[in-house]
Design brief:
Length: 435
């Protein structure tokens, strides 16, 4: 099982053959690591160096949006009965080449093409939902029409930001946009808003990795602990809550890492806090539920609103150290059956479904007309180990040779990349009739 590093080269883009399949850490260990415990530096460099048929290399130059072929209009109003959460990635050359990320101001560490990632096969896949349901390609006009005059807010962690930036790029490639505001520190992408004046739409991102109010590490990386107030909406979005028409909430990763949790001024427990503090362990599941509950309640009102709860999108360090240049160098999606979702992924996903169900039950009979939906991306994201920036989170990482240690991003997705599919599904959710 070779673990030698092969620089990513478009002419060396091997397709794993069935004779010599990619090797994995045993399924349970692998999945466990994918779901948050990435700091466990076990199983160093158990990596794949598959041999097999070459796939033709595609030009790394972007070809811009091709709406004519995969047009959303072939499925008027979306398909009410479709469940997009199960399915598989099918090869579809150039499908994900939708925009130039440099022009829509994404975080530089997600702009893989700019950073020189030479293999572009990760842009050649389309999500095919199970049961033959069609998932139309993203249609910016359809999206903006579905949210005409509305404020769409993404609230959550850096995966929520990844999706928010994808949406701005997808919309901005087809319609004029205007930056309304952004963080004073231009290197940050924590609070920003774009306007799409032709449709009166605004899209905002609020960095609230616990959704609810948090102090400590999430505000200042030099601080060790997170102090999280489960009963209070996060500062930024909490203040703007009455202006939000469509909220997309996404958090999990920071809850897995842990925090000290409060209700009012009282500590009610902690997860991964130093033992000497002697707090009651509350795990990550219960605080995640409470955070979503607080947010959904704040966003409930008598005017029509939509709250979309996004499920967990796992990382793919697969047990390798995150400072290894080969932490995630797989160049193809997993095939069906190649990797299973482990229990943490499933648990985190189920929490979201449960909270959505509980919110609907609470509002039934009351005056609230907030619609709560689930954006289930766990499976489709888990199948895409190839879609992360890896070492291409910096420009030309191998300009000075291949260093022994180099941090890899195996969590966020390249833009353009698999995260654009999250917005394809979001569009179908927004087009669906209110229940
Ligand atoms: C993307 O846009 C930037 C800035 O306009 C430009 O320098 C770059 O060449 C473009 N990249 C591609 C692949 O077209
Ligand atoms: C759009 O995509 C389809 C399918 O890949 C292709 O046949 C067609 O030529 C493309 N059109 C343009 C304008 O690129
Ligand atoms: C969609 O499929 C997922 C996974 O099989 C399941 O958990 C979920 O309940 C389904 N959603 C609906 C609305 O049926
Ligand atoms: C916080 O305290 C209030 C009042 O005692 C209680 O109703 C609420 O359920 C508590 N919330 C949490 C998250 O424990
Ligand atoms: C930790 O908390 C437990 C339960 O409240 C208590 O019995 C114990 O004395 C505490 N230990 C310390 C060192 O404070």
């Amino acid at each position: 099982m070779g673990a030698s590093y092969q620089p990513l080269d478009p002419h060396n883009h091997h397709k794993p053959s069935s004779k010599n399949p990619p090797c994995f850490v045993s399924k349970p260990v692998c999945a466990l690591l994918a779901c948050g415990f990435v700091s466990l530096a076990l199983l160093h460099l158990l990596c794949c160096s598959p041999a097999g048929a070459q796939r033709p290399a595609f030009s790394p130059l972007l070809q811009y949006i091709n709406n004519t072929y995969y047009s959303v209009s072939s499925v008027p109003g979306g398909d009410e009965g479709c469940n997009y959460s199960e399915g598989r990635w099918v090869w579809s050359p150039g499908y994900a080449r939708r925009y130039n990320a440099t022009e829509c101001n994404v975080k530089e560490s997600h702009d893989c093409l700019r950073n020189g990632r030479p293999d572009t096969g990760y842009l050649d896949w389309r999500w095919q939902p199970a049961g033959g349901c069609p998932l139309p390609a993203f249609d910016a006009g359809a999206f903006l029409s579905a949210v005409r005059g509305k404020h769409v807010a993404f609230i959550g962690d850096s995966m929520a930001r990844n999706q928010a930036q994808s949406l701005v790029c997808l919309l901005g490639a087809a319609f004029p946009s205007r930056l309304v505001y952004r963080d004073a520190d231009q290197r940050k992408h924590n609070f920003w808003r774009y306007a799409f004046p032709a449709h009166g739409v605004t899209v905002s991102f609020y960095w609230n990795p616990f959704i609810v109010k948090a102090m400590g590490k999430s505000e200042d990386e030099s601080v060790r602990e997170n102090h999280v107030h489960l009963d209070t909406p996060g500062d930024g979005w909490g203040a703007d809550a009455d202006t939000i028409d469509v909220a997309v909430l996404g958090a999990s990763h920071w809850l897995l890492n842990g925090a000290i949790y409060y209700n009012g001024s009282e500590v009610i427990g902690a997860h991964n806090a130093p033992a000497e503090l002697n707090y009651t362990g509350v795990g990550y599941a219960w605080p995640l539920k409470m955070a979503y509950r607080t947010a959904v309640e704040r966003l409930s009102s008598s005017r029509p609103r939509t709250v979309v709860l996004a499920t967990f999108s796992p990382a793919h360090f697969e047990g390798r150290p995150s400072d290894s240049p080969t932490a995630c160098t797989k160049m193809e999606p997993y095939e069906e059956g190649e990797k299973e979702l482990d229990w943490i992924c499933r648990e985190l996903r189920d929490i979201v479904y449960d909270e959505a169900e509980a919110a609907r039950a609470r509002s039934a009979g009351g005056g609230a007309t907030t619609r709560v939906e689930v954006l289930d991306v766990t499976k489709l994201a888990a199948m895409r180990p190839d879609g992360h920036p890896s070492v291409y989170m910096h420009r030309d990482p191998f300009a000075h040779g291949v260093p022994e240690r180099m941090y890899s991003d195996c969590l966020h997705f390249c833009l353009p990349g698999p995260v654009d599919t999250f917005n394809e599904i979001l569009l179908q959710i927004l087009r669906r009739k209110r229940r």
